[in-house]
Amino acid sequence: MQTFTLVFLIALLFTTSTQIWLAARHTRHVRAHQDKVPEEFASQISLSDHQKAADYTCAKTRAGYPGILLHVLLLLVFTLGGD
Q1: pLDDT given at position 82
Q2: Which residues contact 33 (CB under 8 A, 6 or more apart)?
Q3: Closest C-alpha to 21, from 9, 29, 10
Q4: How far apart are the first and last CA of the chain?
Q5: CA atoms within 13 A on the CB side of 56
Q6: Which of 35, 32, 33, 30 minimizes the C-alpha distance to 57?
Q7: Quick one: what percent of the chain has pLDDT higher than 70?
Q8: What pLDDT does 81 receive?
Q9: Is the pLDDT score of 1 beyond 90?
Q10: What are the tens digits of pLDDT across the range 44-73?
């Protein structure tokens, strides 16, 4: 295996794992704070709307995981799949 290929694969692994880690961290943060509306917005947003937004955010983040993996797969096919 060429040196550049190895560096590319390590960078791809690092980037992908960072994206997944950040998405999971974001979801944990949203879940941890979904039970209370921030004081700055308490007069404008109800608790149920705030919780709906948290649920939507978490669902959208989870739905993005397959897209991350698809991008990695396509990148590998386009870069290393040829002759």
Answers
A1: 76
A2: 54
A3: 29
A4: 14
A5: 6
A6: 30
A7: 99
A8: 87
A9: no
A10: 999 999 999 999 999 999 999 999 999 999
Helical (H) or strand (E) element with 83? none
| HSE, side-chain direction, 13 A CA sphere, residue 25 | 6
The answer to whether the beta carbons of residues 7 and 79 sit under 8 Å apart is no
Task: Check residue 50 and give its pLDDT.
Answer: 97
Question: Residue 59 is encoded by which pair of tokens?
Answer: 């669902």
CA distance 65 to 20: 7
Pure H helices in the chain: 3-32, 47-63, 65-80
Q: What contacts 50, CB < 8 A, 6 or more positions away?
A: 34, 37, 41
